[in-house]
Amino acid sequence: MKTGWIKWALLGLAIAMIAWGAATGQALTTLRKAIYICLECMGLGA
Amino acid sequence: MKRQSRRTLIQAIAALAQNAYIPGFFRGVIFQGKSKLLCVPGLNCYSCPGALGACPIGSLQAALGKRGRFPAYVLGTLLLFGVLLGRLVCGFLCPFGLLQDLLARVPLPKAKLPRWLDRPLRYLKYAMLILLVIGALLLAEPVFCKYLCPAGLLEAGLPLTSLNPQYAELRGTLFYVKLAVAVAIVLLALFVYRPFCKYLCPLGAFYGLFNGVGFYRMEVAESKCVRCGKCKAACPMDVDVVHHPNSPECIRCGKCSTACPHEAISCGFRRK
C-alpha cells in the first residue's frame, strides 16, 4: 500500500493548524509565556 | 571535513543561533523580542538568557493550560518539524543533544544498559509526553518543566541565579531537586550515550513518531547490503538499521552510513 500521501497530508495539516492558531491569537500566548522569566523552568519559587 | 565533524559544527551553529542574545548572559535578563512568537525545533528553555525563540515543550504546556482551547499553533509547529525533519532535530538542531554528544566524547569507559532494562526504559519518554499533556490539562501546570527538565535548570536556572541576586534568593527545595536531576543526567551522559534522549525526552518521543512517515528518510539498498552488521555496531542509539532504518529511536546522526563499507545506507528528503 502506498503511504507517500500521508506526509503531504500531515504537512498540509501542520500548515493549516499554524495558520489557524496564528489567526486566533495563539501565537501571542506563546510570546507572552516566553518573554517572561519562567520560574518553574528554573526550579524557583518552591 | 569528516561527516561527524560537520554534524558537530551544524549542532554548534544551531545552538548559538537559538541562543544568540549575548547581552542576556552578562546582564542576567532574558530576551523579550517578537522572535519568541516562534518555537525553536529542539529543547531550548525560553528562560535561557540567550534564547531568541520559544521552547516547544514549554509552549505546548502553556497552550494546553488554556483550557477549552485546542493548542493549534504549537501543535501545528511541532507537527511541521516532525513531518519535515523527524528526529533529525535531535541529531542536528537540539542544544541539549549537543551537550550530551560533547559529554559522550569525554574519554571515560562507555556502557550500554542491558537489553532487559534498556527496552522498557525507552518507553519512559512516551510516558513523559503523556504525563506533560495530562499535567497541563488537569493541573494547568508545566509538570515536565517544573520537576524534570534539565535544560531549564542548566540553561536558565544556573545562569540567571548566578547573575541575578533577586533570583538567587528564590532558590528552594525544588531548585535543588532539579539540580540533582540535572547532575544525574549529566553524569550518566558521561558513560551512556544520550540517556536523556533515549529515555526521557518527550520532544524526541514526539518527533520519533514521524521518522517512519516524514519527508526525511533513511533507506538501505538491499542489493548492496551484505548484512555485515557494521551499521548496527556503529549506531549509538542501538538501532537495528538494516531491519528498522526509520526506527523512532534513530536520531539521524549518520554514523551507520559512515560505517557501511558498501555505501548501502542513504538518507535524505524524499518526495514520494
Give your account of this protein's structure:
The complex is a heterodimer of chains A (46) and B (272). Chain A is elongated. The N and C termini of chain A lie far apart (54 Å). Chain A contains 3 helices and no strands. With 46 residues, chain A is an all-alpha fold. The longest helix of chain A has 20 residues. Helices cover 74% and strands 0% of the residues of chain A. Chain B contains 16 helices and 2 strands. A two-stranded antiparallel sheet of chain B has the order 1-2. Chain B is globular and about 60 Å long. The model of chain B has no long low-confidence stretch (mean pLDDT 93). The interface between A and B is large, with 36 and 62 residues.
Along the chain, the helix and strand elements of chain A come as: HHH
Please name the two chains that share the biggest interface, counting residues whose Cβ lies under 8 Å from a Cβ on the partner chain.
A-B, 36 and 62 residues
Estimated structural class of chain B: mainly alpha
State Rg of chain B: 19 Å
Intertermini distance of chain B:
31 Å
Strand fraction of chain A equals under 5%
| Helical content band of chain A | over 70%
How many β-strand stretches of chain A?
Answer: 0
Total number of helical segments of chain A? 3
How many helical elements of chain B?
16
Question: DSSP strand (E) fraction of chain B?
Answer: under 5%
Strand order of the largest sheet of chain B: 1-2
Low-confidence stretches of chain B: none
Large-scale geometry of chain A: elongated
The chain-level structural class of chain A is: mainly alpha
> What's the overall average pLDDT of chain A, rounded?
86
Distance between the termini of chain A: 54 Å
Average pLDDT figure of chain B: 93
